[in-house]
Amino acid sequence: MTGSIEQPLRSSVEGGVLTLQLNRPRARNAINRALRVQLRDALQAAAVDDAVRVVVIRGGEQSFCAGGDIKEMGKGLADNAMKLGLAKQIVQAIADMPKPVVAVVRGHAAGAGFSAALACDFVVADETAQFHASFVGRGLVPDMGASYWLVRQVGLHRAKSILLTGRVLTGQDGFELGFVSHYCPNGDLEARLQVLTSGLATASPMALGLTKRMLNRALETDLSAALDSELVSQLFAAESSEARAALHPAARAAH
């Protein structure tokens, strides 16, 4: 009897939270072509799905993601360009997503796995997490946005120290440096993740999406442009049902 082929990406939705679980445990969740395509498609679909309020990307207990699958490397320039193009679409989908994206990191997050976590709006990690920018050690350069996000999250010189040396960072290191938003040792990761995602899932989708957009652009704009963006965004947000209910509780109670 032939067993069923496991899908490289599992997805489930509960309470407005879409969980995308990387599902290649034998390869430490290394990213192959099938996983790239499925992750990109799932993220793009989530962006326009009103039932999804928060996206969680996670691996297993032993590994979040070991980076690109080395078994698919070395196949020539065209193949590399194709894979990097898909990787760009994944990162762009996370950045453009008008909803919060949370990375849950346990075990290894190496190479592109580290980059993917950095692209998310929140990084939740426990004491088993190991972040490894393994690019230079393999004669490669950072990809999937690592050079972009890490500088913004830890500063230029710290980013150089991490990316040029390839040193391994723990979950606590990441929290102290600033790219891990929630450090959860002692077995409380799932409980704290639940608190985070449930809170985000019940917040105003419009307010979250507009705020995320402004913050992602904050370092590429000047004060005047930022104020204009806040002005326009606030005009839209103030007309949302969530804002009206919060600003006029008496009217909400009457309904």
What order do the helices and strands come in, and which of them pair?
Elements: E1 9-14, E2 17-22, H1 33-47, E3 54-58, E4 63-65, H2 77-96, E5 101-105, E6 108-110, H3 112-119, E7 122-125, E8 130-132, H4 146-154, H5 156-165, E9 168-170, H6 171-177, E10 182-183, H7 189-201, H8 205-216, H9 223-238, H10 241-247, H11 249-254
Parallel strand pairs: 2-3, 3-5, 4-6, 5-7, 6-8, 7-10
Antiparallel strand pairs: 1-2, 8-9
Helix pairs in contact: 1-2, 4-5, 8-9
General description of the model:
It is a single chain. This protein is of the alpha/beta class. The chain folds into 2 domains: 9-201, 2-enoyl-CoA Hydratase, Chain A, domain 1 (Alpha-Beta Complex), CATH 3.90.226.10; 205-254. It is 48% helix and 16% strand. It contains 11 helices and 10 strands. The protein has helices at residues 33-47, 77-96, 112-119, 146-154, 156-165, 171-177, 189-201, 205-216, 223-238, 241-247, 249-254; strands spanning 9-14, 17-22, 54-58, 63-65, 101-105, 108-110, 122-125, 130-132, 168-170, 182-183. The strands form 2 sheets. It has a 6-stranded mixed beta sheet with strand order 1-2-3-5-7-10, sandwiched between helices. A 4-stranded mixed beta sheet has the order 4-6-8-9. A hairpin with a 2-residue loop joins strand 1 (9-14) and strand 2. Helix 8 (205-216) packs antiparallel against helix 9 (223-238). The protein is globular, with a radius of gyration of 19 Å.
